[in-house]
Design brief:
By secondary structure, the chain is of the alpha+beta class. Helices cover about 30% and strands about 15% of the residues. Among the domains are: about 60-130, no CATH class; about 145-195, no CATH class. Helix 4 (about 115-120) links the parallel strand 6 (about 115) and strand 7 (about 130).
């Protein structure tokens, strides 16, 4: 059904877009997500788990970065609230701000990095004016379609019975796949889920 919807949108004049995080956000295509072996994979799992045993990595949980520390216009550390107390952590080489699309600009702005006019209105003294911080966001808009199909062909149809649930569970446990890759009606290999 997804392939049919995407094809219909393209036929209506909407451009194809395989990378919504690329240079062009407009278009139609499948969502991108971070997955590994058939499961959603967070940035923490993807990047921190693999390096957590290194001697130069220390992972703090339950900590909140409250401010980037600047000296002569360069970041040299962060202020962190941990266990109810403020702690200063200084970097040996560099500070990497990786707090997501909302929290990264917020952290920079409360540190005095951002559009000077915005910061002053919020009662923050600009330390390093940068007009682009917090501007030009692009939302990843989506369309959810709910309709009744004339034949059972969706994953929801498969999960309606205990047999279908068992089959889907076994398929995932063995192959790490949610779908079997075939149309349930004609058994042709996908992508061609809508068969006449």
């Amino acid at each position: 059904m997804c392939d049919a919807f995407i094809a219909a949108a393209q036929a209506a004049g909407h451009p194809a877009n395989d990378d919504f995080n690329g240079a062009q956000q407009e278009g139609v295509g499948y969502f991108q997500n971070t997955a590994w072996k058939g499961r959603r994979c967070s940035a923490a799992h993807a990047y921190l788990t693999s390096c957590s045993r290194r001697h130069n990595v220390e992972i703090w949980t339950g900590a909140l970065a409250t401010r980037v520390l600047l000296r002569d216009g360069k970041a040299y550390g962060v202020e962190v609230q941990r266990d109810g107390a403020l702690t200063t952590v200084e970097a040996r080489a560099e500070v990497i701000v990786s707090a997501g699309a909302i929290n990264a600009p917020q952290l920079l702005q409360i540190s005095g990095i951002g559009p000077a006019e915005w910061l002053r209105k919020a009662g923050i003294e600009p330390v390093h004016p940068m007009e682009g911080v917090g501007r030009n966001y692009q939302d990843h808009l989506q369309v959810r379609i709910v309709f009744r199909a004339v034949r059972p062909m969706t994953f929801n149809d498969e999960l309606r019975s205990w047999y279908g649930q068992l089959r889907a569970g076994l398929r995932y446990a063995i192959f790490h796949k949610a779908a079997d890759g075939q149309c349930r009606i004609c058994r042709r290999v996908l992508p061609n889920p809508l068969c006449a």
